Amino acid sequence: MKALFLIFHGFNPSNGISKKISYQVDALKACGLEVRLCYMDETTTKKRMVDSTAIADYGNGTMSKILKRTDFSAIVKYARQEHVGFVYIRSNNNASPFTIHMVSQMKHAGMKVVMEIPTYPYDSEYEAQGMSKQIFFDKIFRHRLAKHLDGIVTFSDYKEIFGQRAINISNGIDFDSVPMKDTQNDTSKELNLIGVAEIHRWHGFDRLVKGLAEYYSQPQEYKVKFHVVGYFFSKEIEMNFRQFIADNHVEQYIILYGKRHGEELDRIFNLCDFGIGSLGRHRVGIQKIKTLKNREYAARGIPFVYSETDSDFDEKPYVLKMPADETPVDIQKIINFYRQLTISPQDIRESIRDLSWKHQMKVVVNSVMP
Q: Burial letters for 317-351: b for 16+ Cβ neighbours within 10 Å, e otherwise?
């Protein structure tokens, strides 16, 4: 069966979100589907692409900006001509009369259509970033859009979203792209923590900084360092974080690398022993989520900490949970937890084999295909 994976933004293979999409596309192919990717290319003019072929060119200027958000006729035309049977839409939180019309036409042509909502609920995230206006129309039309779908794919435990049944999966892992940590560090005198993210306030890394400040408020022979990898969502977040580090006098214990990938990222992981997941999801009203980062830490073979609810990991012996509040992270608790661990990196990695992208996308396919 032919399938179309539809996104409403650009596609850059080196970008984290695009990598995830590539893994999902490959997983659908492994499930036996003939998959094409539809995305926007704005390198010259605004073009809607299917793989390397332009199916619509909106030009430049004000009208092109409008058309890329309202004109989806080329997508429907392509899907009909190619006899696409299954459409996987990655939501951009852009429900509108135009997306509703597109999906209704697809359904009328006999296609199965599901929509992935990458983060749910998401209203509070937009509010936290001062971007509520961007989902004004989405709030009005999302229930109507949901009625036309065959299901909503979610990385949460919700059974229904916007009145439509939820298809519950986990963020997956492409094991070929995430190597296991291959060094065993001497942790008798020092423990190295690592946090990898596009850094938002909901990552709660400030809680870790405050925890380090409390830990080092007394002389400590045992050293703990925090390696932060990734770029900040905004200059304001970066400036506030750097100032927070300075105000708490822990500059010598925190290393900011910026964005790293490939062998460089692997090298940093090999230096580190313990992963720092999200510690502030409660700040944007999210209690249950299955983040990619938790899965990457496990695939790397390192233990880690987070504060949300993640049903794939909450009971794992190599996971430490922190309270979902504003208390500083208890550094001594991390040290004590790490010291009592006996599980090997290989066993940590093997414990999530069922979280491969192929396994997760197979759940989606089976939920809508006869």
A: ebbbebebeeebbbbeebbebbeeeeeebeebbeb
Give me the chain's average pLDDT, please.
Answer: 95
For residues 25 and 5, give the distance between their C-alpha atoms in angstroms, rounded to a whole number: 7
SS3 call for 290 = coil
- Whether 261 contacts 306, CB under 8 Å: no
The pTM score is 0.83
What is the tens place of the pLDDT at every residue in 269-315?
A: 999 999 999 999 999 988 988 999 999 999 999 999 999 999 999 99
pLDDT digits (tens, 9 = 90+) for 119-169: 888 888 888 777 888 899 999 999 999 999 999 999 988 999 999 999 999
Instruction: Give the lowest-confidence range in 105-109, 116-120, 123-127, 172-176.
Output: 123-127
Which residue stretches of 216-327 are H helix?
235-247, 262-271, 292-300
CA dihedral 314→316→320→325, nearest 10 degrees, is 0
Report the alpha-carbon distance of residue 368 to residue 239 in Å, rounded: 47
Tell me which residue of 186, 258, 185, 261 sits closest to 227, measured CA to CA: 258
> Strand (E) positions, the chain?
2-6, 34-41, 47-50, 53-57, 86-90, 112-117, 151-154, 160-161, 164-168, 190-196, 223-229, 254-258, 274-276, 304-306, 319-321
Task: Determine the average pLDDT of the residues in 103-124.
Answer: 94
Sorted by sequence, the CB contacts under 8 Å of residue 218 that are 6+ apart come out as none
The C-alpha atoms of residue 283 and residue 64 are separated, in whole angstroms, by: 36
Residues whose CB is less than 8 angstroms from the CB of residue 52 and which lie 6 or more positions away in sequence, other chains included: none
DSSP 3-state assignment of 210? Answer: helix
- Count the Cβ atoms, other than its own, within 10 Å of residue 248: 20
